[in-house]
Fold this protein.
Amino acid sequence: MRKRRIMTIAAIGAVGALALSGCASDGAGGTIELGGGGGNTGGGGDKGTITLGFLPSWTDGLSTAYLLQDQLEKIGYDVELKTLTEAGPLYTGLAQGDVDLFPSAWPEVTHAEYMETYGASIEDLGTYYDNARLTIAVPEYSELTSIEDLAGADLGGKIYGIEPGAGLTAQTQKMLPAYGLDSEYELVTSSTAAMLTELKSATEKQEDIVVTLWRPFWANDAFPVKDLEDPKGAMGTAEGLHFLGTKGFAEEFPEAAELIEQIKLDDEQYGALEDLVVNEYGEGEEADAVDEWLKEYGDQFEWVVSS
């Protein structure tokens, strides 16, 4: 295995730059222009081409995108990767058929509003992880233990979030009035990369900061952070991470749908995949990361295609 290298802020910025290759007009009936992807080249693609759309700054989707590309190409599909920067355009593209497959969706809670809008044109292909959750986090050295403790705390009146269109952003905006924090705190949104930059800077200086995070996510282990308790449940309950397809996906790509439905990951397996793709290998070497993961974990799954 390669020498471990935790993602630097420079690498995070590169991921953010990659995300900019996708641009779109949001909302129902909008059109999208998708940026290029990359990764493995397939073994013939005689069963057709599957367009897989994901947000590279959201590393759950980044990791599973390359895992799916590897497995689907091994059973005879061509896989074309398309990157976007926001969940809304991705759901629009999925509903319109411009994207065939979304490799890591949060449709139960985080993306519930998108499913209400586009769900009739989307197929649920299965849940691969069943304990995802949205969190509000602070450094481990902070004395705060609960979201309730944010009231009156000397934190500059800011909570650092991610992309404005993210489901996590919408849920955090609902959380603020639930705890009476909406007049005291501003949710600062821009990008996942920018949030992580702020988190890295603050923790290196042992300063206080509040950020929006989620689990599973590699940053929970890479940075000294802890989740604040959420006694009101305002950040939502645990939910599953799903593979979503455009309507008619299973009929058009039956073998792909059958393979995808079998994929299930536990905490260790998922964590190892994300760590390899994001931290140990990084941009441009995702296929090698998947190969490394398959060497260690492939024998645990009936669905894994080895060649």
About this structure: The chain is about 35% helix and 20% strand. Confidence is low (pLDDT under 50) at residues 1-43.
